[in-house]
Amino acid sequence: FWNIKERWNEEEESDDRLTLCQSLTLLFTNKAFIIVELVYLCGLTAVILIQTNLLLYAKYIVDSEDSITYMILMVQGVALLALPGWLWFSKKYGKKQMYYVGGITVAIAVLFLFFLDGEDDLWAAYLISLLVGACLTVVYLVPYAMLPDVIELDEKKTGKRREGTYSGFFVVFMKTSVTLALAMSNWILGAAGFEAPEASCGVEVGDLSDAQPDAVKRVIRILCGPLPAALFVLATFFVWLFPITRESHAEVAKEMKAIRRKRSSMRASKLAGDIELNGVVEKSDVSLSEKNIVAK
Prior knowledge:
By secondary structure, this protein is an all-alpha fold. It contains nine helices and two strands; from the N terminus they run ααααααββααα. Strand 1 and strand 2 (203-204) form a beta hairpin. The protein is elongated, with a radius of gyration of 28 Å.
């Protein structure tokens, strides 16, 4: 972190104070923040559902447990290679357009996981892995790129920089999403009749069963295909509802820059006035002391 520099100046912040209740009320009534949270939660939940059940999908749907290694390598490798391209796309066309393309593409790709069956379709699973990897960056990058826009809009309303508050709740909701996705996945599989490995003292041991009921296989397909696809589409819809555009953000940023300069100038003038006043008082005290000495 040695190269990171804080550009924010405390002198540019408003002197107004917010109580805890006021701060939380402004947070949860901020439409832009709620929409960003929904975008992130829908996208992240979809990814968690696929990650959690990918091993089961590889073993019971495409009949190749070892293929999960190659799927993960393809997704992670292509995601890393695609990152510069998405950054260029975002700068040229905007964050919302970036999610429109990436979110819909990954939704269509994972939807086809529902239709694969057997090792003969393994090539299609690899192709889907490449497509998902190419668009996975969008799911994580766009919500985090939208959050600073929300914080600047909040600063315009409150005069305060509240990155800590927004980032803290962002992480809390993220962890809640992960927990709920894992719990929901396990519960649905259990309800469908999933045959888990034999357990001892509450700890599962042994390998996965060689076969599962058809109902469980159908649920695995749904958890890796249609359900995540629906969540990606829903996240894309929330991106469309996001009220801050590139043009409106530019206006807010320009306005806030002028407000910060004004606050900084006012404080500098006030500080200079206080220093000058203190100097006059000190001179008066010195003159009075000299007069007292002469009188004596």
